[in-house]
Amino acid sequence: MQRRVFQFAVVLLWLSLPLVAVQYTQVWNQLPVRVATHFNAAGQANGWMSRGGAVDFGVGFMAFLLVIFTAVLFYNARHRVDGFSWAALSFCALVLGVMVKVNRGIVNYNLQGEPLRLGGVLIAIPVAAILLIAVYVVSRREPALPPSGEPCASDLLAEETHSGPAMALLILLPMIGLVIAASAVPAPALRLSLALVGLIGLATLAAAWSGFQYRFLRHGLEIRALGFRLRSIPRQQIQSYAVERWSVLRGYGIRGVGNSRAYVWGNKVVHIKTLNGDIFLGHSDPQRIVRDLDRVMSH
Fold first, then answer.
1. For the chain, is the Cβ count within 10 Å smaller at the N or the C terminus?
2. In a domain, 13, yes or no
3. Is the previous residue joined to 146 through a cis bond, with omega within 30 degrees of 0?
4. For residue 212, which of 202, 201, 200, 226 has the smallest C-alpha distance?
5. What is the CATH number of the domain that holds 207?
6. Cβ 156 vs Cβ 216: under 8 Å
7. How many Cα atoms are found within 13 Å in the side-chain-facing hemisphere of 106?
């Protein structure tokens, strides 16, 4: 029942598509031949399209977002609908609502010269993104191993770290650009929005530099980042594991949706098949991970 309600809610997101189209078509004859569609940080128009081009772009971009959001939401909830599923749905609805508001602002600017007031919008999206990440991390945690509580020292068989200093340096470059941009923009709301985006980037940089920590215990495997437990895999759920290559096209960091999850900063992984899905552990020497898993499975 909950899945059907969730799927119905996802379908309702598509109402934003005709809403954007109507915003333009209901005032079609009043719009100028050249419609201002792009604005700088001060809210001044610096890009124009024809009326038809403006409608095509506005509706086309909404359709693109809806296809992506629908595919991701349905795929993530194909096995179960949990708190993160609803949080992701809310985030998608917020983004689509922002796009509806932006298009309404573009129409009003071209009809009446009203400036775009997007200060609250610019702040809402990064704040919502931070909350979504927090919900994701908390909702995907399994109980500590052993189930009775935190493991004692005698339970720890091995501990490995998989960091990505090169990836951290790559993240640092856009962070520097973000700081320069934040210092140059005149709008306080946009400056705060960039600061919030920078906060997410800073956390990602710290996670890449310190890496993922794998703790191999008598009872299973724990995956941590920045001292926070991301996942616990009981020994009884592990079915098989093997070394594989990781394609750059699959991305880095915490990857995957549904029951597949990867913790990767490089191009070598150990693919662990469990009763609850597939786990990929990145490491520069994946054979060490295999040996550590052998120790876990032998107890």
1. N
2. yes
3. yes
4. 226
5. 2.30.29.30
6. yes
7. 29
